[in-house]
UniProtKB/TrEMBL annotation:
Cellular compartments annotated: Cell membrane
UniProt GO cellular component terms: plasma membrane; side of membrane
Assigned keywords, A-Z: Cell membrane, Glycoprotein, GPI-anchor, Lipoprotein, Membrane, Signal
Originating organism: Trypanosoma brucei
Protein name (database record): Variant surface glycoprotein 1125.1786
Any Pfam family matching the protein: VSG_B
Keyword DNA-binding part of the UniProt annotation: no
Alphabetized InterPro entries for the sequence: Trypano_VSG_B_N_dom
Amino acid sequence: MRQAILVSALATLYLSKQVKGAANDNARPYNVLCAILNVATATPDVDTTDYSAKISEELEMVRHLNMSVSDDGFFNQDFKTPNTDRDAKEPWKSNKAAWEKSKNLVEAGETKFHGIKITRKLASHERAVAAAIADETASTIQQLQKTLKSTKTTADVTAELNKAIYGANGALDKSGDTTFVTQSGAGCGGGGQGASKAGISLANDMVCLCSNTNGQNTACTGAAINSDLKYDTSANAATAFTKLREKCPMHINLKATAAGLRNAITSFIGTLKGSAKATQAGNTILGYADADTCNGGANAD
């Protein structure tokens, strides 16, 4: 569900051309972009389990076990009384408090690990073997914990999806060039791959598909939205996107899932070259018309 997944699909519009036709000629690709928008703005389905915390809990119990079978020389030390020289050095510096807690719990004999009370064992070969196993287990858990990836939160995923919708800053840019690019029509594909900035945001591509010079294009929505569908400045493009978003067919999405995004992207790819016009044979075009140049306004209905 990362932003890169969605943008990689939108970036296939390296020759995306703004295309204009009769009312609703671009309804299908517009609706597909709306579907992607609906998925990307839904609440992400994120596993919020804090595995690091759970591992820490298990590690603490293993530490108690380790203390219960440690050799007498270590177990009988005074962990409570400060010892300046000893306590300033590792491993005492990092572990003294935990060792003291473990010893107290073992001596109390009431702590259970998976239903079994942790108590002090008498010296024996079995205790020595158990100590070695517990020590190795604790070390392995600590190493695995270091390699555990940090848990992604709902906010993390939402931030990445917002980048796919609005561009690198993750918010609708009404004056800069992170959501829309108006110079020479590059935001809509320009005259070819070299100049194309198509795919910088979903908002950008939706406005490219549905705008024209006078702002009254009907190819996406079936009827003009006043004269608001213009892509000549970032401010006007932002207005156009807001109006187009309001017209989107809405779907109920309780959660944004990876599967939902994959399905939306598959549908998007299926709309490329969708009109089977001659120019589309050699160019990757989103929309209806037979044109290989797009500047965000030149192709009128």
